[in-house]
Amino acid sequence: MSRVKRLRILPLFVTSALACAFLLTPALPAHADAVADAKALAAPSLPGANDWSCKPSTAHPRPVVLVHGTFANGTVNWPIAARAFSARGYCVFALTYGQLRGVPVLRAIAPVADSAAQLSTFVKGVLAATGAAHVDIVGHSQGGMMPRYYLKFLGGAGKVHTLVGLAPSNHGTTLSGLSLLAQAWPGALSIVATGCPACADQIVGSPMLGRLNAGGDTLADVDYTVIATRYDVVVTPYRSQFLDGTGVRNVTLQDLCALDLSDHAGLAFDQIALHEVLNALDRAHATRTNCLSHV
Fold it and tell me: What stretch of H or E contains 228?
């Protein structure tokens, strides 16, 4: 073969060799960055949650993402729910969001839009880790309202099948209501008015709530359940938590059990309320919730 022909063939040979080497090189884990970003937001030391090797079953094909409320974090908000849902066969994940620089301990105090962006990051990682197409979200207080921002403005509607809100601040509360909530958290009361953008976002009539609720409370492709208690003194009146729209189920806890006296904070720990959450997550196998129900 002439030297000229060999020189012409050489680039083709090199290109083919490089292509073969690329195809034979082991691929990096899919969406590894997304999972790493989500893990950085995961609530620590929460039994039953954040097993990143968990794969959803046929019976429960969607991971459950738990979203805590104002001033709280994922670990303190969900010790009962995480264990109970995991024991029922769900892949359960919980994040801690909404930190402000310079403010220790207290979480879910950043602007709602910023927290919704963190939820978006977390859900993306959960989907990447589990291989699921959608998640279900269970949120308490701000954690029941803030995901709606994610659904409406950050593309979450295509990734979320069901949203369950426990005492959600869907239409806001008063500053006095937030002050009552803050009394349960050391140091929170002093920052309610000045150092808590999420508090300002949740006050009745805030620009954020106006934008969130403009054009309707719900989106067509998401199932919604709201569970409220008549004894809520934080988000008042309690019926303001309810959503209008198709695909919505609004539940008053005392209609399930008149003897249940749980308040706003207690709803995330209430056995009867959590039983009704499980019904919302799997309506096809729902069982009647009453005073004897438990998880």
Answer: strand 223-228
Residue 11 burial class via C-beta count within 10 angstroms: exposed 0-12, middle 13-18, buried 19 and up = exposed
55's tokens: 């794969």
- Find the length of the chain: 295
Q: State the Cα–Cα distance between residues 217 and 248, nearest whole angstrom.
A: 10
Sequence-separated (6 or more) residues with CB below 8 Å from residue 168: 139, 140, 141, 142, 143, 144, 145, 226, 235, 241
pTM: 0.89
Q: Angle at which helices 271-281 and 79-87 pack, to 10 degrees? A: 50
For the segment 195-238, what is each residue's pLDDT rounded down to a tens digit?
Answer: 899 999 999 999 999 999 999 999 999 999 999 999 999 999 99
- The residues facing 162 across adjacent strands are 136, 223
Which one-letter DSSP state was computed for residue 268? G
Q: Please give the backbone phi and psi of residue 117, each rounded to the nearest 5 degrees, phi first.
A: -65, -35
What does 132-168 look like in DSSP terms, one character per residue?
Answer: -S-EEEEEETHHHHHHHHHHHHSSGGGTEEEEEEES-
Question: Who's near 80: CB < 8 A, 6+ residues apart?
Answer: 268, 269, 271, 274, 295
- Report angle CA 285, 288, 293 to the nearest 5 degrees: 110
Contact criterion met (CB below 8 Å) for 225 and 289: no
